[in-house]
């Protein structure tokens, strides 16, 4: 067996579905555990310990080795598509559109009779008929999403000809919804009509709709259009009519309508060009009419593809040679990090080197240019870099003197932007020591012991908040009265732009970073403005002066006609690169240059309402005239910010929120800080802005000790958040290095982490691969094979791929380890490998000293962890239960091998013997003697039967001759060579149970078995509780027998604490979980509605028309925001459709019942209540009463149910419908009988809430009687439920338990039996009294029954549900069992 090393690379399309990404990770890990690891050829000869660090770039994975050299492995994406199939044309359905290609763009569905209607959704998949033509598919998607978007049509200069076909124009997608005409204020229309005299009201309203109620912009557009019409020879025909504009605004819904997608729209980054000559070509194609697409046979390629990462076969070293790996003057590389454009490496002397990501490029032999920018031409020895971190575009550095700086990737963003965003070295305020550095594309941050510091580009939300605050503060110094305008006063216009035209902005939201020059002024921070866009390379080639003189003079803020020059008049582009235009949201960009505007001037002359104003700017002096009514006086101190502050050059301090006990980890993204902290022993994930405001605080549903290590561990926690400075990804690594995906739930919190099943994740890194415009990709791409049955992905567009690279090395010490990883053998379900390992372990224990062997055991077994802090026992348990009833292997064999089975049958017979003895008034002494003898005999018989069965099985397995068929079916797969994975699901389950038996029976494992049984996983469960939680009752029985052997000498209270600590969580009691674990109602109702209690879970999104049954609420949605639904209770359970339902498999009911009896007999768990304050008997009584009502019509429905097979639900996207032909759950009825027959269980129920008075204290008679009523509410609930909703047989068993204990003599008699009986009788009386008040007819029925039985016997009598009573029942029995 090798080291099972695997380099795993995963790519998640962003924006995307994190749940799909998690499912693909599971599929990769399941394939690894079932079929073996998928090795990487380039790393076959390298042990895991030789790799120190890995980082991931756009198309390479870089590795830092322990010999301080750096190498990288290239990877690429290979696409696999199903073969093409030819589809014959079909006739369209009446009322539908003429084809499916332009109308039905829904994902993953087959076209049907309704396919003609429009069903396009944003980001959906192309239609089946268009997958062979990517350009057509993308155009169809763009066309389908064109509805309700505002366009502005700007006519270019005059061209030859007077027809419309000779004109050209640009349609700019504004990207916002059309404002209804009724919502436009009348004052805005009136303002526009004053200037636009002669324009109709409808034209003005439509233009205001297009400009989002921007009056100035609407007026300028209409005036510019009017001038263009005057310049045309035949303007009436050449101008785009309003009807066509309305058509464009409404969207083109048909692919065969006025315009054709092909060649008409070019799908750019937010902008589209419309050429009029193409319009004319669409209207008439030289008189030829082409046949409709629906009449042609189409060649269809399935849109479902599966893409895979493929690694290179060799490692590329820095210098290109494996012999000489280091560049000149470099001895060691100590750290590496990835930019989008290059790999950065830090030497031991504090110098940074670079290596471009291009294929076949070699690392640089000279230090990176950034060293010179920080330290000058001469690199000094007094100050050098000690640490650095990178994101996609920005990096932060820390020097040995405590100074910090920041710079950006010049290879991706260009030299000009890099110079503008460069942050020189600064000192930490107050001389605080830096503990860690963090960076995102917008800003950098450092963490000190008491606070955080950040500097760089202020996030948009925070800079808008500060800007609004300054504006509100400046309003106090502004006078709006025209009488205050005097000569010499400083005035400004009432409205001025936030960002003036010709300001330069950078957009990092697109797939490729773009630089834009504003073509219009932005008057608010919520606008969408037009930009001339350039790539960083084009921007570097531009002249330094991007703002021509005439553009600056065109910036006129005087009150008057603000007619904007045409875009073609801005600048002569003879020597400039081709200009593209697009519309960007202001919030998506940041400005590296803000064009100043003359907003404040001095009044020099006043002539009535006209003022002469002198504006002075950094360019020149201007004198303007304006209306005094449009001016405001600026008083002293009233100079406000003209635009938000984009850059913070000095470190800004942010204090941590109050109530934080400990900061575990910290990351930053473009929105602020994300901090993992400890609060009151629980993990919280906090999002905090750069202003120090907490925007969210979510408690993670995971155990603190499982993520951060034990509380008493003096070493700092190794738990770490990872996000690469990106908002769309957040990973958590626990102190063992395992991955914990943080997936959002329906209410914005985080889901419980699911089990993945891997061990030995040594390294983890996150990167980003940006996609080109309109480039499609699978939702998830992996480098490893995935389990069969996983759904294929449909390619779609996205902005980037989030890359996650990890190195899984279960045995990192060697390529061919002497002793394989025991955890990996458990994941393989390899019984032979485990036996071989334990055999070697036994030999080592004999040849090694005791202290050395303890250290060896601690390293190889005790400290061995899988994901979720799971030990080898947890790992075996997680393989020991079935995911479906068809694959269930934990079933009862033909012999009585199951421990406790004979005891179970005899105990039930014992209960009936007690009832018959009381009814027939047999001799009390004889009955007690029989009871004791049978009880002892039952126990002895159970032990002998179990031992004989185990011995017989072992003897049979030791023989070489063929086994009988029924025994052979239960045999585990025993391989001779270790390291062979098992793929059959049933065999894996049986092997896992056998592996647990090997662990608990092996002598060398006994010293570490106690510690392994006490370790809790990420959910806070021990291996035993985890087995019960996951319905692995066979594995739980094995662990229970081991605990009985280890802790059998402990008192019952101490033994209970060994099994379960009540302080962890009351709902995790194994006794309650056993009773919770009934199957979902969908397994026996299917999609038929029944009358049942239904719940809604806001955490999982089961709201509205979705709901879940009570069984799922107790299992799948326990500890969620799950409440009873106050609507019609007629429904079926939808839990399996929305989340991974854990209540679909019943498990081994016999083993489950055995565990229940054992926990009642050997522990004191029955005295503990759940989180709702319910005793187990109250919960069981309510469950039985509810299930009796829900299941009363089960037989009738079962006859009409269709065959379940393994059908697929088309509405759920091909999701497999679970089995729905099972029997309704009956375990609660049996469990209630068992608990009612146990006196300790009944006693603990009656004493719930009873307070013991202090001895020796004086107490009045009234207080004494009041104290005797403590806890009566809980008891009354049980009595009412038992009498009103449960069967009479349960009451018989309860009364039998009372009588049995009351009839005992001497020390066998419980001293609280009389007190318990009196509390029970008082409870019955209270329930009876309340019932008669609510329903008086009940009292009359009871009195009539009592009159017929006046001859009451002095002894206590009761009736049973079995057998016939020879005499009428007494009055007391009627009061107890016949009230209702």
From TrEMBL:
Q: Per its UniProt record, what CDD domains does this chain match? A: CUE_UBR5, UBR-box_UBR5
Skewed-composition ranges (Low complexity): 94-110
For this chain, one GO molecular function annotation is: ubiquitin-ubiquitin ligase activity
In terms of superkingdom, the source organism counts as: Eukaryota
Q: Which residues form the UBA domain?
A: 183-225
Q: Note whether Zinc-finger occurs among the keywords.
A: yes
Sequence segments annotated as region (Disordered) = 81-137, 550-576, 950-984, 1195-1220
Entries under PANTHER family matching the protein: E3 UBIQUITIN-PROTEIN LIGASE UBR5
What is this protein's record name?
E3 ubiquitin-protein ligase UBR5
């Amino acid at each position: 067996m090798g080291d099972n090393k695997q380099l795993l690379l995963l790519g998640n399309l962003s924006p995307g579905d994190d749940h799909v990404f998690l499912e693909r990770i599971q599929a990769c890990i399941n394939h690894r555990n079932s079929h073996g690891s998928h090795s990487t050829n380039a790393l076959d000869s390298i042990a895991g310990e030789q790799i120190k660090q890995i980082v991931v770039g756009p198309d390479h994975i870089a590795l830092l080795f322990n010999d301080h050299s750096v190498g990288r492995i290239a990877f690429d994406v290979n696409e696999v598509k199903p073969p093409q199939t030819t589809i014959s044309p079909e006739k369209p359905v009446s009322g539908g559109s003429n084809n499916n290609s332009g109308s039905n763009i829904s994902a993953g569905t087959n076209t049907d009779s309704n396919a003609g209607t429009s069903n396009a959704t944003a980001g959906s998949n192309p239609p089946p008929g268009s997958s062979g033509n990517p350009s057509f598919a993308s155009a169809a998607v763009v066309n389908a999403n064109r509805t309700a978007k505002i366009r502005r049509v700007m006519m270019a200069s005059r061209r030859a000809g007077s027809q419309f076909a000779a004109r050209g124009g640009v349609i700019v997608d504004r990207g916002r919804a059309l404002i209804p005409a009724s919502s436009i204020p009348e004052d805005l229309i009136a303002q526009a009509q004053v200037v636009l005299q002669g324009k109709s009201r409808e034209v003005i309203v439509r233009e205001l709709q297009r400009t989002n109620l921007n009056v100035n912009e609407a007026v300028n557009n209409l005036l510019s259009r009017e001038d263009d019409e005057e310049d045309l020879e035949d303007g009436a025909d050449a101008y785009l009519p309003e009807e066509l504009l309305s058509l464009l605004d409404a969207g083109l819904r048909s692919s065969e309508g006025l315009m054709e997608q092909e060649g008409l729209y070019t799908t750019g980054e937010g902008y589209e060009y419309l050429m009029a000559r193409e319009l004319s070509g669409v209207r008439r194609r030289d008189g030829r009419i082409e046949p409709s697409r629906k009449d042609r046979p189409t060649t269809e390629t399935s849109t479902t593809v599966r893409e895979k990462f493929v690694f290179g076969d060799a490692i590329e070293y820095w210098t290109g040679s494996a012999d000489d790996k280091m560049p000149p003057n470099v001895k060691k590389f100590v750290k590496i990090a990835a930019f989008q454009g290059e790999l950065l490496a830090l030497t031991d002397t504090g110098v940074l080197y670079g290596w471009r990501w291009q294929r076949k490029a070699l690392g640089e032999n000279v230090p990176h240019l950034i060293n010179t920018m920080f330290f000058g031409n001469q690199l000094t020895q007094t100050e050098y870099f000690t640490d650095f971190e990178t994101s996609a575009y920005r990096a932060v550095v820390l020097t040995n003197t405590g100074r910090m700086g920041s710079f950006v990737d010049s290879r991706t963003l260009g030299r000009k932007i890099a110079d503008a965003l460069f942050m020189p070295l600064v000192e930490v305020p107050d001389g605080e020591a830096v503990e860690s550095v963090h960076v995102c594309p917008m800003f950098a941050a450092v963490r000190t012991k008491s606070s955080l510091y950040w500097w760089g580009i202020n996030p948009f939300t925070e800079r808008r908040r500060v800007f609004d605050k300054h504006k509100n503060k400046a309003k106090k110094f502004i006078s709006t009265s025209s009488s205050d305008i005097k000569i010499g006063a400083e005035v400004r216009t009432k409205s001025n732009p936030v960002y003036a035209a010709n300001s330069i902005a950078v957009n990092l939201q697109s797939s490729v970073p773009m630089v834009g020059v504003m073509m219009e002024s932005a008057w608010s921070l919520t606008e969408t403005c037009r930009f001339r866009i350039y790539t960083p390379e084009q921007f570097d080639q531009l002249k330094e002066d991007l703002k021509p003189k005439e553009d600056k003079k065109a910036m006129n803020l005087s009150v008057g006609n603000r007619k904007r020059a045409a875009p073609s008049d801005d600048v002569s582009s003879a020597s400039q690169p081709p200009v593209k235009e697009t519309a960007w949201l202001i919030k998506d960009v940041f400005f590296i240059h803000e064009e100043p505007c003359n907003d404040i001037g001095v009044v020099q002359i006043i002539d009535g309402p006209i003022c002469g104003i002198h504006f002075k700017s950094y360019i020149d002096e201007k004198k303007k005239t304006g209306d005094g009514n449009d001016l405001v006086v600026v008083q002293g101190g009233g100079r406000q910010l003209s635009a938000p502050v984009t850059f913070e050059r000095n470190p800004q301090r942010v204090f941590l929120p109050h109530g934080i006990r400990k900061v575990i980890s910290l990351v930053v993204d473009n929105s602020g800080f994300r901090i993992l902290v400890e609060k009151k022993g629980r993990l919280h994930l906090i999002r905090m802005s750069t202003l120090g405001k907490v925007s969210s605080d979510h408690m993670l549903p995971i155990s603190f000790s499982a993520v951060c290590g034990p509380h008493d561990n003096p070493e700092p926690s190794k738990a770490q958040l990872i996000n690469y400075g990106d908002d769309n990804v957040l990973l958590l690594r626990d102190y063992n290095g395992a991955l914990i995906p943080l997936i959002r739930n329906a209410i914005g919190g985080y889901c419980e982490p699911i089990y993945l099943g891997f061990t030995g994740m040594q390294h983890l890194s996150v990167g980003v691969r940006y996609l080109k415009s309109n480039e499609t990709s699978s939702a998830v791409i992996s480098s490893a094979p995935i389990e069969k049955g996983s759904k294929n992905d449909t390619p779609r567009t996205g902005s980037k791929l989030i890359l996650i690279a990890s190195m899984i090395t279960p045995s990192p010490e060697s390529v061919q380890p002497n002793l394989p990883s025991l955890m990996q053998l458990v994941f393989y379900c390899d019984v032979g490998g485990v036996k071989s390992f334990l055999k070697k372990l036994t030999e080592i224990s004999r040849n090694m000293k005791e202290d050395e062997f303890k250290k060896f055991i601690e390293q190889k077994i005790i400290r061995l962890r899988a994901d979720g802090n799971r030990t080898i026992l947890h790992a075996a348990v997680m393989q020991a239960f079935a995911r479906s009833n068809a694959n269930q292997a934990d079933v009862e064999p033909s012999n009585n091998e199951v421990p406790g089975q004979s005891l179970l049958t005899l105990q039930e017979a014992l209960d009936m013997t007690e009832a018959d003895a009381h009814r027939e008034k047999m001799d009390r002494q004889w009955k007690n003697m029989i009871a004791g003898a049978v009880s002892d005999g039952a126990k002895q018989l159970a032990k002998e039967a179990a031992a004989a069965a185990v011995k017989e099985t072992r003897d049979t397995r030791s023989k070489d001759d063929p086994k009988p068929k029924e025994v052979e079916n239960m045999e585990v797969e025993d391989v001779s060579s270790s390291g062979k994975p098992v793929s059959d699901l049933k065999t894996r389950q049986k092997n896992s149970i056998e592996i647990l038996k090997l662990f608990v029976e092996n002598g060398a494992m006994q010293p570490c078995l106690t510690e392994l049984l006490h370790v809790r996983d990420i959910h806070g469960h021990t291996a035993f509780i985890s087995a019960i939680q996951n319905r692995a009752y066979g594995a739980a029985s094995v662990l229970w027998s081991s605990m009985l052997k280890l802790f059998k000498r402990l008192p019952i209270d101490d033994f209970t604490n060994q099994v379960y600590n009540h302080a962890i969580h009351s709902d995790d009691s194994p006794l309650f979980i056993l009773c919770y674990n009934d199957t979902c109602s969908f397994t026996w109702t299917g999609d038929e509605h029944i009358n049942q209690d239904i719940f809604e879970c806001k955490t999982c999104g089961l709201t509205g028309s979705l709901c879940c049954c009570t069984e799922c609420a107790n299992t799948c949605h326990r500890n969620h925001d799950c409440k009873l639904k106050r609507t019609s209770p007629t429904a079926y359970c939808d839990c399996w459709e929305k989340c991974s339902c854990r209540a679909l498999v019943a498990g081994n009911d016999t083993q489950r019942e055995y565990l229940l009896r054992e926990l009642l007999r050997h522990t004191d768990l029955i005295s503990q209540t759940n989180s709702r304050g319910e005793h187990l008997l109250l919960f069981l009584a309510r469950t039985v009463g509810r299930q009796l009502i829900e299941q009363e019509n089960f037989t009738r429905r079962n006859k009409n149910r269709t065959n379940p097979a393994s059908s697929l639900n088309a509405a759920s996207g091909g999701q497999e419908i679970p089995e729905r032909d099972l029997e309704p759950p009956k375990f609660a009825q049996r469990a209630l009988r068992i608990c009612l027959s146990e006196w300790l269980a009944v006693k603990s129920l009656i004493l719930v809430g009873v307070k013991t008075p202090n001895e020796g204290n004086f107490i009045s008679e009234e207080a004494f009687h009041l104290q005797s009523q403590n806890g009566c509410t809980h008891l009354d609930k049980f009595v009412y439920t038992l009498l009103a909703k449960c069967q009479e047989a349960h009451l018989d068993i309860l009364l039998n338990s009372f009588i049995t204990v009351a009839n005992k003599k001497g020390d066998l008699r419980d001293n609280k039996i009389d007190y318990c009986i009196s509390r029970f009788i008082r409870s019955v009386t209270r329930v009876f009294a309340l019932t008669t008040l609510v329903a008086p007819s009940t009292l009359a029925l009871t009195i009539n029954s009592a009159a017929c039985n006046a001859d009451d016997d002095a002894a206590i009598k009761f009736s049973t549900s079995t057998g016939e009573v020879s005499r009428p029942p007494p009055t007391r029995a009627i009061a107890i069992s016949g009230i209702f």
